[in-house]
Amino acid sequence: FRRLGLRGMKQRLLVVANRLPVSANRRGEDHWSLEISAGGLVSALLGVKDVDAKWIGWAGVNVPDEIGQRALTKALAEKRCIPVFLDEEIVHQYYNGYCNNILWPLFHYLGLPQEDRLATTRNFESQFDAYKRANQMFADVVYQHYQEGDVIWCHDYHLMFLPKCLKDHDINMKVGWFLHTPFPSSEIYRTLPSRLELLRSVLCADLVGFHTYDYARHFVSACTRILGLEGTPEGVEDQGRLTRVAAFPIGIDSDRFKRALELPAVKRHINELTQRFAGRKVMLGVDRLDMIKGIPQKILAFEKFLEENPDWNDKVVLLQIAVPTRTDVPEYQKLTSQVHEIVGRINGRFGTLTAVPIHHLDRSLDFHALCALYAVTDVALVTSLRDGMNLVSYEYVACQGSKKGVLILSEFAGAAQSLGAGAILVNPWNITEVADSIHHALTMPSDEREKRHRHNYAHVTTHTAQDWAETFVFELNDTVAEALLRTRQ
Ligand code: ADQ
């Protein structure tokens, strides 16, 4: 901002993401009720100084009629949100199909779908077409609202084709793209049939960001190996044009968690939980119910721990809160039944008349209940098989006051790079290793707990979501300004 002389001026920022940060419920022909979901991204962007941000995205509902669309657009405008209307067919092909069935598993090293391989291959082209059409629909809405000088920040694997659509429309648009998932090794990425088009599109952005240096490196390798371009310390160069590629690790709004812990309702909740689990150590898992989160592996590791440490029976409880997602996808339904089956078996095996070792909830918790749970927990278990960053680990650390609880963290979560020195790092596939880590965490001397917690707490409270968003927008402005200087020289 300083370099562009923008300090003191509000710069317009258009944030484009698949989903708007609201849930919309239709209450009548032309009446909608909206609830803003106060996720990390929302608070991150609210905290960016000198920026006037608007969101563009899908509201998550099908609105086929014009009256409904007009009413929703008007209601959303008050929340600084602009809708992209996607019909059921495109949602099915683009969102459920290409995004969730192809890109999501591939980027998390689960490969292209194995089951029903032929059907997937046959559907692939139509799903990719729908993906491009959907991205073009997002771009059309951006064009309608774009003013010269705006910064456009595209988010995630849903919108990899968007940078190309935007730059084709106006080469001077300032476009940044950030990936919230891992970018896999180029050997995995190159199996994607549409690998060339997507890489070329992302390279149309001025700045490309990832959570970790490794993901950025994988992306640059994909560009050099698959497109034959030149990687430089700054990014990727194609015929004299540089796309900057860098790591921007996300954080959380740690103050929001600290403030919540002071609220009487949260304190009441903490007291209730403390009484409820008095005499037992509490271990916690909070995840979306997704295969990448390694929930069955985590529960099996806990079983192994109970098996090998019978003296801990009745003295420890695992609370696993798993919010269901993508419930219409058969693989996710299968995962839910699998988790229920394992939990039932372990509770039958190790439970007593008065207590069970695992409390498993298939639901979302409200923010205050979540903060209270984080605060009373002795050990948090994050065992993702792959995870872009994993904000649950950050939230847990932010809510630990006097307890100085221990974080067991998968080495395959991006967070391992920032919280690795304070956490116990594990390979979630190695159930014996995780079981041993549970024992280590539960018996850890207080000075070691204190030291580990201090390290992580310092990181979480100084690398916040606001810093992340501010740095990205600053770097994007800077990158464009430098490119302009280069062309003038
Ligand atoms: P997610 O895969 O959704 O995000 P994560 O970073 O852990 O994963 O964030 C989940 C959020 O949902 C957290 O804020 C958590 O509190 C909340 N949550 C999860 N389960 C919940 C429950 N049962 N009840 C209430 N809240 C719950 C994607 C990537 C991550 C990356 C983020 C941000 O997959 O790797 O860290 O984006 O970039």
Automatic annotation (TrEMBL):
This is alpha,alpha-trehalose-phosphate synthase (UDP-forming). Its EC number is 2.4.1.15. The lineage of its organism: Eukaryota, Viridiplantae, Streptophyta, Embryophyta, Tracheophyta. In the C-terminal section; belongs to the trehalose phosphatase family. In the N-terminal section; belongs to the glycosyltransferase 20 family. One of its GO terms (biological process) is trehalose biosynthetic process. It is an enzyme of class 2 (transferase). It comes from the Eukaryota. It catalyses: D-glucose 6-phosphate + UDP-alpha-D-glucose = alpha,alpha-trehalose 6-phosphate + UDP + H(+). Keywords: Glycosyltransferase, Transferase. One of its GO terms (molecular function) is alpha,alpha-trehalose-phosphate synthase (UDP-forming) activity. The keyword S-adenosyl-L-methionine does not apply.
